[in-house]
Amino acid sequence: MRKLKPATIKDVALAAGVSVGSVSNVINGSRSVKAGTVKRVKAAMEKLGYRPSAAAQSMRTRSTRAVGFVVNDISNPIYASIAKEAERLLNEQGYHLILVDSDNRPGQEVEIFNTLNSGRVDALVATLSDEQDPNIIRALKNVDVPVVLLDREVDFPLDSICIDYAKGLEKAVNYLTDLGHEDIALICGGENIRPGRECIKGYRAALKKKEISFQQARVKAGPLTADFGYQQAMELLSRPERPTALICGGNRIFAGALRAIKFLGLKMPDNLSVIAFDDTELTALSSPEITVIARDTKEIGAAVGQFIIRALEGEKDAGFQNVILSAELLVRESCANVKRK
Fold first, then answer.
1. Nearest 5°: phi and psi at 109?
2. Is the dihedral angle over the CA atoms 257, 258, 263, 266 positive or is it negative?
3. Are 22 and 11 in contact (CB under 8 A)?
4. 56 and 143 share one domain
5. How confident is the model at residue 62 (pLDDT cuts 50, 70, 90)?
6. CA-CA distance, 258 to 227, in Å (whole number)?
7. Which of 146, 193, 262, 266 is deepest in the core (most CB within 10 A)?
8. E strands in 139-203
């Protein structure tokens, strides 16, 4: 039995009753093609099982229809939620998202930027592992395609989508102080990334408004990892004079802190009130359910998709956009009135 040859662009043109040039224009997304023609060509492609060569398309149009999404920790479930919504919007415009993990390693991040910048993507979305690393900044400045930063800021113009962590922390501290807590610890990202700086800023501002003295020893800033969360929670909570409340400024940090809380045999909220970042399955399935500072991942993902589409399909030289989205406090069961000694 002879194997059928794969359909060619000529077969599609014949089936659709149009020229090869019209088929090529439809494949390459030309806006000059009439809607009826597009419909007939796509129907013929579907019927014949025709799949255009991505490499050939890229060479002809100098467009890959791909968008790189560089994350610093692929195990963070929030990135999956954001990517899913961004991908939905980008797919509608014929683009696809490529997720790449830098594993919080600046050197690897530089290599990723250099690789993706070699004609492999039309745009980049990035969460930098270190905003202050000179090699990362140099590589970022050399990127020739549009870039959208997610929750990061640099000292040169780029599109960015950020979360108002400072306000989120203020809401959390205010809630805890209303419950009578004054000894509140914070484990968060380092000051080399915006989320860490903003968390500390909001924490300090809220304590000042409540006229509670700031204790540097109660703030642990470092990598947004479960290991860091575990180590710092163990240090804070193993002491006889442990804090009465703990804020975890990252969902991976919370995962590590939760392990320490269980290891030490502490009960939430009886022995310790806890607030985490992000409304994840872990916070929802924990017992008790965890009060969280939540960011709307669908809203963030939609903003990512819209920013990329604007950069690739919108007006040229339209200027850069910077948006700050809100973080809301979702009160659940992990906090209680402080028990006076």
1. -60, -40
2. positive
3. no
4. no
5. low
6. 11
7. 193
8. 147-150, 159-163, 184-189
CATH of the domain at 285: 3.40.50.2300
Where is average pLDDT lowest: 14-23, 187-196, 229-238, 266-275? 14-23
Question: Is the separation of the CB atoms in 248 and 274 below 8 Å?
Answer: yes
- Which amino acid belongs to residue 192? N
86-109: pLDDT as tens digits = 999 999 888 999 999 999 999 999
Q: Is the pLDDT of residue 55 over 60?
A: no
pLDDT at position 59 is 45
Tens digits of residue pLDDT in 171-198: 999 999 999 999 999 999 999 999 999 9
Residue 110 has pLDDT above 80, yes or no: yes
Q: Does the residue 214 lie in any domain? A: yes
Q: Which two tokens stand for residue 111?
A: 């290599």
257, 187 Cβ separation under 8 angstroms: yes
Q: Could you tell me the two tokens for 163?
A: 């979360």
CA dist., res. 276 & res. 6, Å (int): 54
Q: Determine which of 220-234, 245-259, 299-313 has the lowest per-residue pLDDT on average.
A: 299-313
Q: Which long-range contacts (CB under 8 A, 24 or more apart) does 74-79 make?
A: 74/99, 74/101, 74/103, 75/252, 76/224, 76/251, 76/252, 77/251, 77/278, 77/280, 77/281, 78/251, 78/278, 78/280, 78/295, 78/297, 79/127
Q: What is the residue range of 194's domain?
A: 165-295
The Cα–Cα gap between 230 and 242 comes to 15
